[in-house]
Amino acid sequence: MIKIQNLTCAFGQKTVLENLTQTIPSHLSILGANGSGKSTLAKALCGINSYGGSIKIGNKNLQEYEPKERAKTIAYIPTKLEFYDEYLTLEEFVLLGRFPHKESFLDYSQEDRAIASRKMELLKITHLKRHLLNTLSSGESALALIAQALTQESEIIIFDEPTANLDPKNAKIVAGHIKNLKQTHQTILITHDISLAHFMNNPVLFLKDKNATLFEQNDFFTDENLSHCYDVPFESLELCYA
Questions:
Q1: Residue 214 CA, distance from chain mean position
Q2: Were 150 and a residue from 119, 122, 191, 228 both cysteine, which residue would form a disulfide, CB within 3.0 to 4.6 Å?
């Protein structure tokens, strides 16, 4: 369970989120317009961004976690691979997820390598393990990011726009994997894709004007409510994920 109390995030003179208080007991989808603070909130939850107020995971304040302990608790998956060694293979990249678990100055253990291997098998990317990261397609890169997060074995996984750069086929593959992970992890999905959010069947936290409103799934996905939230008309919404 994640408890957010009076969370405020600002960049320079611009306040993105202000006095946000919310409890996240389980799975959640976070939606909102561009610039509403979705990614800012996600990064605050992982301790990547600075913030005012408090975030507790369980009964412990996030700022009290040591870096490795925090990594074992919560993982953040960005929209796409941006910073990496161009000579790193997919297998080496996935194995980095074991860093919080290994002893300092020692190599990865056979168990670490076995865990990484199982996660690649789960996502059906084992055949790519010797490929360099910069040769992967967008869909393959998305699966590599998920594989690394699973190898990290965090209790909570945050997905930040996981289908933003994918074609419909790969988006559907990634969506299926994320939904399956609800059986073993607490998942938090940040997305602009209304169909993807509906497919996840989670409560929805909608960010707007520095505020947040929590909706149950069925209450959020109505033409009337979507029109109100996004300030554009919705009629007979068609949802493409199945």
A1: 18
A2: 119
What CATH code is carried by the domain that includes residue 25? 3.40.50.300
Query: What is the longest distance spanned by two Cα atoms in the chain?
Result: 58
67 is in which domain, residue-wise? Answer: 2-84+155-230
The dihedral over CA atoms of 103, 42, 79, 81, expressed in degrees to the nearest 10, equals: -30
Give the residue among 82, 89, 90 at the shortest CA–CA distance from 147. Answer: 90
* pLDDT one-digit tens code per residue, 172-205: 999 999 999 999 999 999 999 999 999 999 999 9
In the predicted model, is pLDDT for residue 80 greater than 90? no
**pTM for the model:** 0.90
Distance CA 188, CA 44 (A): 13
Structure tokens belonging to residue 240: 């493409």
Half-sphere exposure of 169 (CA within 13 A, CB side): 4
SS3 21: strand
Say if 168 falls within a structural domain. yes
How many domains does the chain contain in total?
A: 1
pLDDT digits (tens, 9 = 90+) for 121-168: 999 999 999 999 989 999 999 999 999 999 999 999 999 999 988 898
